[in-house]
Amino acid sequence: MAIGLNSKKRNGGVSHSASFLLGALLPTILLFFLASDRVGERLASIFISSLGNGSAHQMISHANLSSAEKDMQEERFPGLAELLPKVATEDGTVIVTSVNEAWAAPGSLLDLFREGFKNGEEIAHLLNHTLIVAVDPGALSHCEAVHPHCYLLEVTSANVSSANRFFTETYLELVWAKLSLQQRVLQLGYNYLFTDVDIMWLRNPFRHISLYADMVISTDRFNGDVEALTNAPNTGFYYVKSTKRTVEMLRRWRAARSRFPPTHDQAVFNEIKAELAAGELHIKFMFLDTTLFDGFCQFHGEMDRVCTMHANCCIGLENKVHDLRNMAADWKNYTSRVTLLEKRSEESRWTFPAKCEASMGHR
Fold this sequence. Notes:
globular, alpha/beta, three-stranded mixed β-sheet, seven-stranded mixed β-sheet
Protein backbone atom coordinates (compact mmCIF):
# COMPACT_ATOMS: atom_id res chain seq x y z
CA MET A 1 0.00 0.00 0.00
CA ALA A 2 2.61 2.50 -1.06
CA ILE A 3 1.73 5.99 -2.19
CA GLY A 4 3.49 6.92 -5.44
CA LEU A 5 4.72 10.43 -4.84
CA ASN A 6 6.32 10.54 -8.34
CA SER A 7 3.54 8.96 -10.36
CA LYS A 8 3.63 9.95 -14.03
CA LYS A 9 1.36 9.74 -17.01
CA ARG A 10 2.09 7.17 -19.68
CA ASN A 11 3.55 9.89 -21.89
CA GLY A 12 6.08 10.76 -19.18
CA GLY A 13 4.41 14.01 -18.06
CA VAL A 14 3.31 14.69 -14.53
CA SER A 15 -0.42 15.07 -13.88
CA HIS A 16 -0.72 18.53 -12.32
CA SER A 17 -4.22 17.90 -11.01
CA ALA A 18 -3.18 14.62 -9.42
CA SER A 19 -0.13 16.26 -7.88
CA PHE A 20 -2.25 19.10 -6.50
CA LEU A 21 -4.79 16.71 -4.96
CA LEU A 22 -2.10 14.50 -3.50
CA GLY A 23 -0.27 17.48 -2.09
CA ALA A 24 -3.46 18.71 -0.46
CA LEU A 25 -4.48 15.35 0.94
CA LEU A 26 -1.13 14.05 2.09
CA PRO A 27 -0.70 16.33 5.13
CA THR A 28 -4.27 15.54 6.24
CA ILE A 29 -3.75 11.80 5.89
CA LEU A 30 -0.42 11.96 7.65
CA LEU A 31 -1.86 13.97 10.52
CA PHE A 32 -4.66 11.44 10.86
CA PHE A 33 -2.23 8.59 11.32
CA LEU A 34 0.20 10.45 13.52
CA ALA A 35 -2.55 11.88 15.71
CA SER A 36 -3.76 8.40 16.55
CA ASP A 37 -2.10 6.87 19.59
CA ARG A 38 -2.56 3.42 18.07
CA VAL A 39 0.97 3.61 16.74
CA GLY A 40 1.36 -0.11 16.28
CA GLU A 41 -1.41 -0.60 13.75
CA ARG A 42 -0.23 -2.06 10.48
CA LEU A 43 -1.80 0.64 8.31
CA ALA A 44 0.14 3.38 10.06
CA SER A 45 3.33 1.36 9.90
CA ILE A 46 2.97 0.61 6.20
CA PHE A 47 1.98 4.20 5.36
CA ILE A 48 4.91 5.81 7.11
CA SER A 49 7.33 3.23 5.72
CA SER A 50 6.12 4.03 2.22
CA LEU A 51 7.28 7.62 2.64
CA GLY A 52 10.84 6.42 3.17
CA ASN A 53 11.02 7.66 6.76
CA GLY A 54 11.23 4.28 8.50
CA SER A 55 8.62 2.31 10.36
CA ALA A 56 6.15 3.70 12.87
CA HIS A 57 7.97 2.26 15.87
CA GLN A 58 11.19 4.05 14.86
CA MET A 59 9.38 7.38 14.69
CA ILE A 60 7.68 7.24 18.09
CA SER A 61 10.43 5.66 20.19
CA HIS A 62 10.86 7.47 23.52
CA ALA A 63 8.27 10.02 22.45
CA ASN A 64 6.83 10.51 25.93
CA LEU A 65 9.94 10.14 28.07
CA SER A 66 12.13 12.88 29.49
CA SER A 67 15.88 12.68 28.97
CA ALA A 68 16.37 11.55 32.56
CA GLU A 69 13.74 8.83 32.16
CA LYS A 70 15.32 7.66 28.91
CA ASP A 71 18.73 7.42 30.54
CA MET A 72 17.31 5.52 33.49
CA GLN A 73 15.45 3.06 31.26
CA GLU A 74 18.48 2.51 29.04
CA GLU A 75 20.61 1.86 32.12
CA ARG A 76 18.06 -0.62 33.46
CA PHE A 77 17.69 -2.42 30.13
CA PRO A 78 21.12 -2.04 28.49
CA GLY A 79 21.26 -3.04 24.84
CA LEU A 80 17.55 -3.72 24.51
CA ALA A 81 16.87 -0.80 22.18
CA GLU A 82 19.65 -1.99 19.86
CA LEU A 83 18.50 -5.63 19.96
CA LEU A 84 14.80 -5.19 19.20
CA PRO A 85 15.19 -4.02 15.57
CA LYS A 86 17.08 -7.24 14.84
CA VAL A 87 14.22 -9.35 16.19
CA ALA A 88 11.07 -7.46 15.19
CA THR A 89 8.82 -8.27 12.25
CA GLU A 90 8.25 -5.70 9.51
CA ASP A 91 5.31 -4.21 11.42
CA GLY A 92 7.39 -3.85 14.60
CA THR A 93 6.19 -6.89 16.55
CA VAL A 94 8.40 -9.01 18.79
CA ILE A 95 7.59 -12.43 20.23
CA VAL A 96 8.89 -12.59 23.81
CA THR A 97 9.37 -15.50 26.20
CA SER A 98 11.41 -15.85 29.39
CA VAL A 99 13.43 -18.68 30.93
CA ASN A 100 15.54 -19.45 33.95
CA GLU A 101 18.35 -22.01 34.02
CA ALA A 102 16.08 -24.95 34.84
CA TRP A 103 13.62 -24.15 32.04
CA ALA A 104 16.42 -23.51 29.52
CA ALA A 105 18.50 -26.61 30.31
CA PRO A 106 18.91 -29.18 27.51
CA GLY A 107 15.87 -31.46 27.32
CA SER A 108 13.72 -29.03 29.28
CA LEU A 109 11.02 -26.54 28.28
CA LEU A 110 13.10 -24.33 25.98
CA ASP A 111 13.96 -27.29 23.74
CA LEU A 112 10.30 -28.30 23.54
CA PHE A 113 9.32 -24.68 22.83
CA ARG A 114 11.75 -24.36 19.93
CA GLU A 115 10.81 -27.81 18.61
CA GLY A 116 7.19 -26.67 18.34
CA PHE A 117 8.13 -23.92 15.90
CA LYS A 118 10.29 -26.22 13.81
CA ASN A 119 7.64 -28.94 13.58
CA GLY A 120 4.66 -26.59 13.30
CA GLU A 121 2.84 -25.62 10.14
CA GLU A 122 4.95 -22.95 8.41
CA ILE A 123 5.94 -21.13 11.61
CA ALA A 124 9.65 -21.96 11.83
CA HIS A 125 10.48 -18.45 10.57
CA LEU A 126 8.81 -16.93 13.63
CA LEU A 127 11.71 -18.13 15.77
CA ASN A 128 13.76 -15.42 14.05
CA HIS A 129 11.38 -12.87 15.59
CA THR A 130 11.48 -14.37 19.09
CA LEU A 131 13.37 -12.73 21.94
CA ILE A 132 14.26 -15.16 24.73
CA VAL A 133 14.72 -13.31 28.00
CA ALA A 134 17.07 -15.10 30.40
CA VAL A 135 16.65 -14.22 34.07
CA ASP A 136 20.01 -15.63 35.18
CA PRO A 137 23.43 -16.19 33.61
CA GLY A 138 22.92 -19.95 33.36
CA ALA A 139 19.77 -19.45 31.30
CA LEU A 140 21.60 -16.98 29.07
CA SER A 141 24.34 -19.50 28.41
CA HIS A 142 21.84 -22.21 27.46
CA CYS A 143 19.92 -19.76 25.28
CA GLU A 144 22.94 -18.50 23.38
CA ALA A 145 23.91 -22.09 22.55
CA VAL A 146 20.69 -22.63 20.57
CA HIS A 147 19.12 -19.25 19.71
CA PRO A 148 20.32 -16.02 18.04
CA HIS A 149 18.29 -13.51 20.09
CA CYS A 150 18.88 -13.77 23.84
CA TYR A 151 18.69 -11.02 26.46
CA LEU A 152 19.76 -11.08 30.10
CA LEU A 153 17.34 -9.57 32.60
CA GLU A 154 18.83 -10.67 35.88
CA VAL A 155 16.38 -11.23 38.71
CA THR A 156 18.28 -11.12 41.99
CA SER A 157 15.89 -13.27 44.06
CA ALA A 158 17.38 -16.34 45.74
CA ASN A 159 17.22 -19.64 43.83
CA VAL A 160 15.91 -17.93 40.69
CA SER A 161 17.69 -20.56 38.56
CA SER A 162 15.85 -23.55 40.02
CA ALA A 163 12.55 -25.10 38.92
CA ASN A 164 10.41 -22.75 40.99
CA ARG A 165 6.97 -24.03 41.83
CA PHE A 166 3.83 -21.99 41.29
CA PHE A 167 3.23 -19.15 43.77
CA THR A 168 6.56 -19.39 45.58
CA GLU A 169 8.23 -16.07 46.36
CA THR A 170 10.82 -16.58 43.65
CA TYR A 171 8.17 -17.57 41.11
CA LEU A 172 6.33 -14.32 41.83
CA GLU A 173 9.51 -12.28 41.28
CA LEU A 174 10.01 -13.98 37.92
CA VAL A 175 6.52 -13.29 36.61
CA TRP A 176 6.57 -9.65 37.75
CA ALA A 177 10.03 -9.03 36.31
CA LYS A 178 8.75 -9.87 32.83
CA LEU A 179 6.24 -7.00 32.98
CA SER A 180 8.91 -4.35 33.53
CA LEU A 181 10.72 -5.44 30.39
CA GLN A 182 7.48 -5.62 28.41
CA GLN A 183 6.63 -2.07 29.41
CA ARG A 184 10.01 -1.01 28.09
CA VAL A 185 9.36 -2.81 24.79
CA LEU A 186 6.15 -0.82 24.40
CA GLN A 187 7.92 2.44 25.27
CA LEU A 188 10.41 1.74 22.50
CA GLY A 189 7.49 1.54 20.08
CA TYR A 190 7.25 -2.22 19.53
CA ASN A 191 4.20 -4.43 19.77
CA TYR A 192 4.83 -7.74 21.48
CA LEU A 193 3.32 -11.18 21.83
CA PHE A 194 4.36 -12.68 25.14
CA THR A 195 4.31 -16.46 25.38
CA ASP A 196 5.20 -18.69 28.30
CA VAL A 197 7.92 -21.18 27.43
CA ASP A 198 5.61 -24.06 28.41
CA ILE A 199 3.44 -23.33 25.37
CA MET A 200 3.89 -25.43 22.25
CA TRP A 201 3.32 -23.43 19.04
CA LEU A 202 1.76 -25.44 16.20
CA ARG A 203 0.17 -22.97 13.79
CA ASN A 204 0.46 -19.21 13.23
CA PRO A 205 -1.44 -17.44 16.04
CA PHE A 206 -1.26 -14.01 14.39
CA ARG A 207 -4.07 -15.07 12.05
CA HIS A 208 -6.41 -14.94 15.04
CA ILE A 209 -5.17 -11.74 16.67
CA SER A 210 -7.33 -8.70 15.96
CA LEU A 211 -5.55 -5.50 15.04
CA TYR A 212 -8.46 -3.55 16.52
CA ALA A 213 -7.75 -4.70 20.07
CA ASP A 214 -5.22 -3.10 22.38
CA MET A 215 -4.63 -6.43 24.10
CA VAL A 216 -5.50 -9.94 22.96
CA ILE A 217 -5.17 -12.54 25.69
CA SER A 218 -5.53 -16.29 26.09
CA THR A 219 -7.93 -17.85 28.57
CA ASP A 220 -7.94 -20.70 31.05
CA ARG A 221 -11.65 -21.05 30.36
CA PHE A 222 -13.44 -19.38 27.44
CA ASN A 223 -17.13 -18.51 27.76
CA GLY A 224 -17.88 -18.07 24.05
CA ASP A 225 -17.73 -14.26 23.84
CA VAL A 226 -14.39 -12.83 22.67
CA GLU A 227 -15.08 -9.43 24.27
CA ALA A 228 -16.58 -10.55 27.59
CA LEU A 229 -14.57 -9.54 30.65
CA THR A 230 -16.06 -12.55 32.43
CA ASN A 231 -13.59 -14.79 30.59
CA ALA A 232 -10.82 -16.24 32.77
CA PRO A 233 -7.64 -14.68 31.32
CA ASN A 234 -4.29 -16.43 31.23
CA THR A 235 -1.28 -14.12 31.12
CA GLY A 236 0.93 -16.84 29.70
CA PHE A 237 0.01 -15.77 26.17
CA TYR A 238 -1.04 -12.28 25.14
CA TYR A 239 -0.48 -9.66 22.45
CA VAL A 240 -0.17 -5.95 23.27
CA LYS A 241 -0.10 -3.14 20.73
CA SER A 242 2.34 -0.28 21.32
CA THR A 243 0.37 2.85 22.19
CA LYS A 244 0.51 5.55 24.84
CA ARG A 245 -2.46 3.90 26.53
CA THR A 246 -0.95 0.41 26.65
CA VAL A 247 2.29 1.77 28.14
CA GLU A 248 0.15 3.29 30.89
CA MET A 249 -1.80 0.01 31.17
CA LEU A 250 1.43 -1.88 31.91
CA ARG A 251 2.45 0.75 34.45
CA ARG A 252 -0.87 0.47 36.28
CA TRP A 253 -0.80 -3.32 36.11
CA ARG A 254 2.60 -3.37 37.79
CA ALA A 255 1.56 -0.74 40.34
CA ALA A 256 -1.55 -2.75 41.26
CA ARG A 257 0.67 -5.48 42.69
CA SER A 258 0.77 -3.54 45.97
CA ARG A 259 -3.04 -3.50 46.13
CA PHE A 260 -3.38 -7.28 46.00
CA PRO A 261 -0.37 -8.77 47.81
CA PRO A 262 1.02 -11.33 47.61
CA THR A 263 -0.11 -12.67 44.27
CA HIS A 264 0.97 -13.11 40.66
CA ASP A 265 0.45 -10.95 37.60
CA GLN A 266 -2.48 -12.97 36.27
CA ALA A 267 -4.58 -12.62 39.43
CA VAL A 268 -3.87 -8.89 39.61
CA PHE A 269 -4.76 -8.44 35.93
CA ASN A 270 -8.05 -10.24 36.52
CA GLU A 271 -8.82 -7.84 39.38
CA ILE A 272 -8.14 -4.66 37.39
CA LYS A 273 -9.17 -5.57 33.83
CA ALA A 274 -12.59 -3.91 34.24
CA GLU A 275 -10.92 -0.71 35.49
CA LEU A 276 -8.63 -0.66 32.48
CA ALA A 277 -11.50 -1.25 30.07
CA ALA A 278 -13.91 1.28 31.59
CA GLY A 279 -11.60 4.08 32.72
CA GLU A 280 -10.03 6.89 30.75
CA LEU A 281 -7.63 4.43 29.13
CA HIS A 282 -10.57 2.54 27.64
CA ILE A 283 -8.46 -0.50 26.80
CA LYS A 284 -10.00 -2.76 24.17
CA PHE A 285 -9.59 -6.40 25.24
CA MET A 286 -10.23 -9.51 23.18
CA PHE A 287 -10.07 -13.03 24.59
CA LEU A 288 -8.89 -16.13 22.74
CA ASP A 289 -10.99 -19.27 22.28
CA THR A 290 -9.50 -22.36 23.95
CA THR A 291 -10.45 -24.48 20.94
CA LEU A 292 -7.78 -22.54 19.04
CA PHE A 293 -5.45 -21.73 21.93
CA ASP A 294 -5.78 -24.92 23.91
CA GLY A 295 -4.45 -25.77 27.33
CA PHE A 296 -4.72 -28.28 30.13
CA CYS A 297 -7.25 -26.17 32.08
CA GLN A 298 -10.04 -26.48 29.48
CA PHE A 299 -8.62 -29.34 27.47
CA HIS A 300 -10.33 -30.05 24.14
CA GLY A 301 -8.18 -32.67 22.51
CA GLU A 302 -8.82 -31.80 18.85
CA MET A 303 -5.80 -31.28 16.63
CA ASP A 304 -7.10 -29.96 13.31
CA ARG A 305 -7.43 -26.25 14.27
CA VAL A 306 -5.38 -25.63 17.38
CA CYS A 307 -2.62 -23.00 17.19
CA THR A 308 -0.98 -23.44 20.59
CA MET A 309 -1.06 -25.92 23.48
CA HIS A 310 -0.33 -24.58 26.97
CA ALA A 311 0.76 -26.72 29.91
CA ASN A 312 -1.32 -24.58 32.27
CA CYS A 313 -3.15 -26.01 35.30
CA CYS A 314 -0.01 -28.02 35.94
CA ILE A 315 2.32 -28.01 38.93
CA GLY A 316 5.94 -29.05 38.57
CA LEU A 317 8.53 -28.72 35.81
CA GLU A 318 8.87 -32.48 35.40
CA ASN A 319 5.13 -32.90 34.87
CA LYS A 320 5.02 -30.12 32.27
CA VAL A 321 7.95 -31.57 30.35
CA HIS A 322 6.51 -35.11 30.45
CA ASP A 323 3.07 -34.18 29.15
CA LEU A 324 4.36 -31.72 26.55
CA ARG A 325 6.70 -34.40 25.21
CA ASN A 326 3.64 -36.57 24.69
CA MET A 327 2.00 -33.69 22.85
CA ALA A 328 5.06 -33.22 20.64
CA ALA A 329 4.96 -36.93 19.73
CA ASP A 330 1.22 -36.70 19.01
CA TRP A 331 1.83 -33.73 16.71
CA LYS A 332 4.57 -35.51 14.75
CA ASN A 333 2.27 -38.49 14.29
CA TYR A 334 -0.56 -36.20 13.18
CA THR A 335 1.52 -34.24 10.66
CA SER A 336 2.96 -37.43 9.17
CA ARG A 337 -0.49 -38.39 7.91
CA VAL A 338 -0.96 -37.51 4.28
CA THR A 339 -4.67 -36.92 3.73
CA LEU A 340 -7.09 -34.63 5.53
CA LEU A 341 -9.35 -37.63 6.20
CA GLU A 342 -6.51 -39.41 7.97
CA LYS A 343 -5.77 -36.34 10.06
CA ARG A 344 -9.40 -36.03 11.13
CA SER A 345 -9.71 -39.64 12.18
CA GLU A 346 -10.67 -40.52 15.74
CA GLU A 347 -7.01 -41.26 16.50
CA SER A 348 -6.06 -37.63 15.79
CA ARG A 349 -6.37 -36.49 19.38
CA TRP A 350 -3.93 -35.36 22.01
CA THR A 351 -2.76 -37.72 24.72
CA PHE A 352 -4.51 -36.67 27.91
CA PRO A 353 -2.10 -34.75 30.21
CA ALA A 354 -2.42 -37.21 33.08
CA LYS A 355 0.62 -36.13 35.09
CA CYS A 356 -0.41 -32.48 35.04
CA GLU A 357 -3.98 -33.42 35.95
CA ALA A 358 -2.68 -35.42 38.93
CA SER A 359 -0.39 -32.57 40.01
CA MET A 360 -3.36 -30.28 40.55
CA GLY A 361 -4.78 -32.64 43.15
CA HIS A 362 -1.64 -32.36 45.28
CA ARG A 363 -1.11 -28.61 45.31
